[in-house]
Amino acid sequence: MDNLFNSFISKPPTISIFIEPSGREPTFLRNDKGEMVEYQTFYAKDQIRGRVQLELNNNRNFKHSGIKIELIGMIDNYRDRNLSSRFISLTNDLSPPGSILNEMNFFDFEFSGVDKQFETYRGKLMGIKFILQVTIQIPYKPQTEETEIVILNPQDSEDFFKLDNSCLKVEIGIQNVLHVCFQLDKTNFHLKDVVTGKVWFKTLKMELKNMEIQIVRKENSFNKEGENEVLGSFEIMDGSPSSM
After folding, report:
1. How many Å apart are CA 174 and CA 196, to the nearest integer?
2. d(Cα 129, Cα 180) in Å, to the nearest integer?
3. Residue range 136-162: mean pLDDT, rounded
4. Which of 12, 27, 54, 156 has the most CB within a 10 Å radius?
């Protein structure tokens, strides 16, 4: 009873999560407040190791029902949180139920051999995120602290070059008025590639003001609603071709 009473009037312990650097370049993403934040970055096969620091804040003989840390991979549906789900939920037990007497306490953790098949993603309809969450089981309400990390799953260059990378041709138009052909030099591009190709007219019997090419990211959620985001827009022609 005394421990339950003290849990209401005492300042709760302070939980801090320290992650061992992976050696990867950090990733900058916007958080829920729209602020650019630096996140520690791991590749899919990297081990995730670190230490949890627990400061009791003068809670002498602090009693708990267990301390754990979880690695959680989540798919967030921004439009309907009920459709959000976890695809990874792994637990390291840091301390069994009992009492803690020291003012400052440290617990090491490690997650290795985890199949992190998805990457961190921020979209308009949904997102994928990975968090480390520490939970202290205490009376009335568990105390938690979490931090987010970024997971990347880059493709090996050898696998990329094995892809079918033949050119892509598309034809569109209006019968007997407009017939346009588009060709991309290949169908798969590296993020640092330059997208190259050509456009030509087979039929043109109308005036054109200009022509633009857009790079569009299309996102589909669980309910198959589409959301498009224009990543870049480039003017490739001003007016009608003089030769037509």
Report:
1. 25
2. 42
3. 85
4. 54
153 with 117: CB under 8 angstroms? yes
Report yes or no: 107 and 51 within 8 Å, Cβ to Cβ.
yes
CA atoms of 28 and 37, how far apart (whole Å)? 5
How many C-beta atoms surround the C-beta of residue 120 within 10 A?
21
What is the distance between the terminal CA atoms of the chain, rounded to a whole angstrom? 90
Q: How confident is the model at residue 104 (pLDDT cuts 50, 70, 90)?
A: very high
**Alpha carbon distance 99, 101 (integer Å):** 7
- Alpha carbon of 232 to those of 56, 121, 163, 213: distances in Å? 52, 19, 25, 8
**How many alpha carbons lie under 13 Å from residue 73 in its C-beta half-sphere?**
16
CA distance 57 to 123: 40
**pTM, two decimal places:** 0.76
Q: From CA 4, how far away is CA 19, in angstroms rounded?
A: 32
Task: Look at residue 82 in the predicted model and tell me its pLDDT.
Answer: 81
Cβ(171)–Cβ(199) below 8 Å: no
**Considering the chain, what percentage of its residues have pLDDT values greater than 70?**
90
